[in-house]
Amino acid sequence: MSERIDNEAGYVLHSRPYKETSLLIEAFTRRHGRISIMARGARRAHSALKARLLPFQALAFSWFGKGPLHTLHDVEWQGDGRSLAGAGLMCGFYLNELLMRLLPPGDAHEALHDRYVQALDELMQGDEIEPVLRRFELALLTELGYAQTLSHLATGAPVEPDRPYAYALDIGVVEASHSDTRYAGKTLLDMAAGDYSDPRTLAESKLLMRRLLAHYLGEQPLATRQLLIDLQKI
């Protein structure tokens, strides 16, 4: 039986041409997660859909169908007129690419959707970029079960701010040996609290998140990564 969903909050992550006049949209919706939607006729010159199906704009999607590909019935703009520009725009594409690469289709992640909306809002306001990216990266990996707690060791003991630690993939925070990459306990506690005001926290968190993302993304690099590295943002 065909399913119909009306007025579901979401954002366009990616779009590409589909058949002669349509678009294939990858959207991140609040209650249905990442979904694929075909927008029939959206590439026609006078299509009203094409002007609405833009990234980083709050939308309300209505679709029908069953299976992995849905058919768009309508989409309404819910935004306030703001948009991303400059380095913030590239960061937005970076967030979208992370979601496209790591988020399984069809799984609802409402808390992560809310964090995505918050990150876009912070980028639009001109907030400092690196803390925005670090908070979202950690939220994404935590939501997907990839990132372990940073406030406690894998043994359950609390992290102490004045001690150095290491991070073992798929295990979590561990006691540091001489050969490990070390992270200050304060850095880990700051990351857990979302506080990146300390320059050391900002520097060490970048190294840790690069390592974690490289592990879970695999060998295929992100298209946006080099652009942001050139901007010194990731």
How would you characterize the overall build of this protein?
The protein is α+β, with helices and mostly antiparallel strands and 234 residues long. It folds into 2 domains: 75 residues, Beta Barrel (OB fold (Dihydrolipoamide Acetyltransferase, E2P)), CATH 2.40.50.140; 145 residues, Up-down Bundle (de novo design (two linked rop proteins)), CATH 1.20.1440. It is 37% helix and 25% strand. The chain contains 7 helices and 8 strands, in the order E-E-E-H-E-E-H-H-H-E-E-E-H-H-H. The strands form 2 sheets. A 5-stranded mixed barrel has the order 1-2-3-5-4. Strand 2 and strand 3 form a beta hairpin. Helix 2 runs antiparallel to helix 3 and helix 3 packs antiparallel against helix 4. The radius of gyration is 20 Å and the shape is elongated. It starts with a strand and ends with a helix. The model has no long low-confidence stretch (mean pLDDT 92).
